[in-house]
Design brief:
Chain lengths: 114, 112
């Protein structure tokens, strides 16, 4: 099993540019989560999907952030326009719904917005 | 409002000794608790969990204790090994929800 796959691993972009982060969950997992990690706030849940449907997006910081899950094997997190304060590590995780809390994380995407 | 708190940002322990990592929570609706371990440049990995109906769960060198009345849980690692050096996140879930609330993490260093 390849685990959760995220791309790119590193992204450096200029303020105002659009950024798209990608995630492939573990096959057979029906829940997918996007997190952001910063020094100040730790690991924050941005949004999660169950069976490709967004369930809770209350953690999405503002309208500049959007996430989609067009099918069970792919999700994107888009930031448009990006700002320096969006610089963080973004993690994608997946799980089997029945296993409360036990999530499998990808390696993360380190985003730097200059 | 930090519902899951890890007040010690770092901890150093000698190899072979016990490591104790602490976590406090404020939301009484939480009924399932987890610990994750994170190495640099990797995502967190699930380590051990405990249901609120229990007060202890053990898995090899790792034991999690839960004190519901104090809203406190701890992770004990014994004996500590250099490979245990990582950031440890406490996390909590409530009800039938999948939403996990994480603490800010404690960086453990095990000194050989």
């Amino acid at each position: 099993d390849a685990g959760v796959i995220q791309s790119p691993r590193h992204e450096v972009t200029e303020m105002g540019q659009e950024v798209t982060l990608r995630c492939k969950p573990i096959s057979g997992h029906n829940s997918l989560f996007w997190y952001r990690q910063t020094m100040m706030r730790g690991l924050e849940l941005l949004i999660y999907f169950n069976n490709n449907v967004p369930i809770d997006d209350s953690g999405m910081p503002e309208d500049r952030f959007s996430a989609k899950m067009p099918n069970a094997s792919f999700s994107t997190l888009k930031i448009q326009p990006s700002e320096p304060r969006d610089s963080a590590v973004y993690f994608c995780a997946s799980s089997v719904s029945a296993e409360a809390g036990e999530q499998y994380f990808g390696p993360g995407t380190r985003l730097t917005v200059t | 409002d930090q519902q899951v708190k890890q007040n010690s940002p770092s901890l150093s322990v000698q190899e072979g000794r016990i490591s104790i990592l602490n976590c406090d929570y404020t939301n009484s609706m939480f009924d399932y608790f987890l610990w994750y371990k994170k190495y640099p440049a990797e995502g967190p990995t699930f380590l051990i969990s405990i249901s609120s109906i229990k007060d202890k769960n053990e898995d090899g060198r790792f034991t999690v204790f839960l004190n519901k009345s104090a809203k406190h849980l701890s992770l004990h690692i014994v004996p500590s090994q250099p490979g245990d050096s990582a950031v440890y996140f406490c996390a909590a879930v409530h009800g039938g929800y999948q939403k996990v609330t994480f603490g800010t993490g404690t960086k453990l260093q095990v000194i050989p």
